[in-house]
C-alpha cells in the first residue's frame, strides 16, 4: 500500500531540497527522519514534516498502527514552482532597478509499507 504527501509553494530552491532527498530515498522512515534531523540544512524541517506526514497518511490509510522502521520511502522529489509572484527589485547604480526572482519548490514524498527488491 502507498501513501503520498505534498508540500507546495515552499520557499526553498528545488536543487537544495533535492540534495537532502537523495540521502533518504529508498530508506525506511525512521532512518530518514534521523538523517534529515542531523543534516544541518535549512530545508530539513520541511523535508522531515513531509516525510512524517506521508507515513502518517499511510497509517490512516491502512487503519492500523505501523512501525515506521518498516515503512520505506518509495519516491521523493522536488520540482520547481512558479516564480511569477515572487519577483523582487534591488536598487542598482544610477537609480536603476535590478530585478531578481525568489525560488519556490513543490516537494512530493511517496511511502510504501513493502520493500522492493532494488531498495536497501
Task: Describe the model.
The chain has 120 residues and is α+β, with helices and mostly antiparallel strands. The protein has helices at residues 14-24, 29-37, 44-62, and strands at residues 2-10, 72-80, 87-91, 97-101, 105-112. The strands form 2 sheets. Strands 1-5-2 form a 3-stranded antiparallel beta sheet. Helix 2 runs antiparallel to helix 3 (44-62). It is elongated and about 65 Å long.
Essential attributes:
single chain; 120 residues; alpha+beta; three-stranded antiparallel β-sheet; 3 helices; 32% helix; elongated
Oligomer: single chain
**Measured on Cα atoms, how large is the radius of gyration?**
18 Å
String of helices and strands: EHHHEEEE
Detail the poorly predicted runs: none
Mean pLDDT: 91
Which range does the strand content fall in?
25-35%
In short:
Helix content is 32%, strand content 30%.
Strand and helix map with partners:
Blueprint: E1 2-10, H1 14-24, H2 29-37, H3 44-62, E2 72-80, E3 87-91, E4 97-101, E5 105-112
Antiparallel strand pairs: 1-5, 2-5, 3-4
Helix pairs in contact: 2-3
Amino acid at each position: 500500500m502507498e501513501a503520498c504527501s505534498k508540500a507546495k509553494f515552499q520557499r526553498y530552491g528545488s536543487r537544495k531540497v533535492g540534495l537532502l532527498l537523495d540521502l533518504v530515498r529508498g530508506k525506511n522512515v525512521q532512518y530518514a527522519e534521523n538523517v534529515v534531523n542531523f543534516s544541518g540544512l535549512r530545508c530539513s524541517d520541511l523535508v522531515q514534516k513531509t516525510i512524517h506526514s506521508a507515513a502518517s497518511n499511510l497509517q490512516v490509510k491502512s487503519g492500523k498502527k505501523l512501525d515506521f522502521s518498516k515503512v520505506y520511502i518509495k519516491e521523493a522529489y522536488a520540482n520547481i514552482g512558479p516564480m511569477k509572484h515572487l519577483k523582487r527589485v534591488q536598487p542598482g547604480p544610477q537609480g536603476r532597478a535590478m530585478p531578481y526572482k525568489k525560488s519556490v519548490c513543490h516537494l512530493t514524498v511517496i511511502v510504501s509499507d513493502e520493500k522492493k527488491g532494488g531498495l536497501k
